[in-house]
Amino acid sequence: MSYLEELKQALAADRVTTNSAVLDQHSRDESYHTPARPDAVVFPLSSEEVSRVMKIAGKHEIPIVPFGLGTSLEGHVIPYAGGITMDFSLMDKVLEIKPEDFLVRVEPGVTRSKLNQELKKHGLFFSVDPGADATLGGMAATNASGTTSVRYGVMRDQVRDLEVVLANGEIIHTGNLAVKSSSGYNLNGLFVGSEGTLGAFTELTLQVYGIPEMTIAGRADFSSIDEAVSAVVAIQSAGIQVARIELVDAASIAQVNAYSHTDYPEVPTLFLEFHGNEAGLMQDVDFARDILSDNGCSNFKFEKDSLARAQLWDARHNLAYAAMRANPGKKMMVTDVCLPISQLAGGIHAAQEALRAEGLEGGILGHVGDGNYHALLMIDVENPEEMAKAEAFNRAIVEYALSKGGSCTGEHGVGIGKAKYQQLEHGNAYSVMQALKKTLDPQNLLNPGKLFYETGNSAAMQ
Ligand SMILES: Cc1cc2nc3c(=O)[nH]c(=O)nc-3n(C[C@H](O)[C@H](O)[C@H](O)COP(=O)(O)OP(=O)(O)OC[C@H]3O[C@@H](n4cnc5c(N)ncnc54)[C@H](O)[C@@H]3O)c2cc1C
User: Fold this and answer.
1) Ligand 1 mean position to 203 CA, how many Å?
2) How far is the CA of 144 from the centre of ligand 1 (A)?
3) In this predicted model, what pLDDT tens digit does every residue of 37-55 receive, in sequence order?
4) Ligand 1 centroid to 101 CA: how many Å?
5) How does pLDDT run across 130-142, given as a tens digit for each residue?
6) How much is the average pLDDT of 223-242?
7) In the list 35, 163, 246, 443, which could disulfide-bond 271, CB 3.0-4.6 Å?
8) Ligand 1, residues 30, 32, 67, 245: which to mutate, most atoms within 8 A of Cβ?
């Protein structure tokens, strides 16, 4: 029997497809990386079905790529080796909310906005908020973060337990429900960020938080990026608990205005948010205002009203879509490096210099409270010269970040785009990662060619 026939027996026939429109939908992510189709897409409903798919793939030596919503930015879900794409969109139930433990148990296809709708009924929220409305399975697999990680941490900090189906079909749990544990290796830490290369997540138990009594958001305008970055460092050093602190450069603010019909001054801007109770919050905000003005802030505008706050953060979150709208026909390259906070200003300077050196235009923005910034370039992938310049720019900022003790990716992950920097970043530890991969996926069937640089990866994959 062919592997497709076996899959149709193991799942329902209508949840195994080779329909070309569906294959196309699963051939790309949201980035500039070259698309490639899978041979089939399956839509499992349970961990048992995922286990059956793994066993069939192992028997026939067919690659498998787990797929959440395909919003990742480094080619993570593009099946360059063909095979099966395993789409988790039908596993989208919030299984259990435990308000007294501040925990929630979900299937991997639940999106962050759907989870927050459910949690709101209990006065709770889930903190991690990447710019796209991604799935929790995909977010765990990329160790995603977002605007609030400066206060609440990244995806890895929220995961208490994962149910994982391994390449051999075995189903394991990587953690437990306890707040802390010194028991054994930290498998949550290993599987979060594994990008579908070690197993498929079929259930996640995640930490959630009480909705703060009060939230204040604000926008602070500066005449230079340097001033804005020094204000971030000063706020962090003063120990003020910001919940969000985001940098958006002047060029990106212009795109936000055009897309979101706002009229923000087109200057380097910090978007901030504070969470807490009224008394503490007013103190924090006053202190922050003093620090901001000491660092050159010309105008600081607060929003307490929930609609005004939502508009502010929608404008920030829609930035990438604003750039796409302004550049029809081009593809998005969002670089993503992370530096120690003391090196952030130097990193942003180096990025601006590298843009100038390559003659490229790009917006600079980021979760600067974490030392994480992005340069957003819209590029013509059909133009080899432009592609080469964009790649040279990417390499320059990665090498700068690594030379300062940073990372080649703060949150978007490795996929294929950053695979070539793994050896450089991790040194001898890279071979430990390769050994782990070999132990858990000896046939190299789980998302092959991702995370690890494989000789033979084609130029299209870089
Ligand atoms: C406009 C825009 C803004 C963004 N902003 C941010 C941001 O602020 N911060 C950030 O971190 N990212 C950001 N991203 C990137 C993206 O949203 C994240 O990488 C997100 O975590 C991907 O989730 P997804 O559900 O789309 O996963 P996919 O793209 O479908 O998959 C991502 C990876 O996870 C694996 N995977 C998916 N589901 C599973 C599963 N159940 N088990 C095991 N592996 C699985 C896949 O194989 C793949 O390697 C942004 C993207 C866009 C388009």
Assistant:
1) 16
2) 7
3) 999 999 999 999 999 999 9
4) 27
5) 989 999 999 999 9
6) 92
7) 246
8) 67
